Amino acid sequence: MKIHASRLQMKDNKQREYFRLAYPQVHRPSLVIDIDNYEIADVSEYGMKVKIDDDPAFLVDDSVIAIIAFPDGREFDLSGQVIRVDHGYAGLQLETPIPLSVIRSETLYLMNTYTRRN
Question: 55, 77, 94, 95: least CB-packed within 10 angstroms?
């Protein structure tokens, strides 16, 4: 049993290798695939969690070519692979990272937005 717990802990640590920025629902960027838009719940340099509800278009191991569109108008092309589908969300692993400067600016934007409200 102890070996199983160690494997699970190593898996969890690897999944969280990069800082993740979780978005409040009203400030979420979009994942644009063809004409479909999906809310992005969180992002990291090499991954994201996408709200898909019950969309059957997302299957584990599928390749994804899309655009991430931020609320301020910035857009980035991306490609990756679906690594998880669970409870109405898909986990994507990206082939090319989202620039760390983008993650930092998004973090600062959200901190400033929510700090001013309190």
Answer: 77
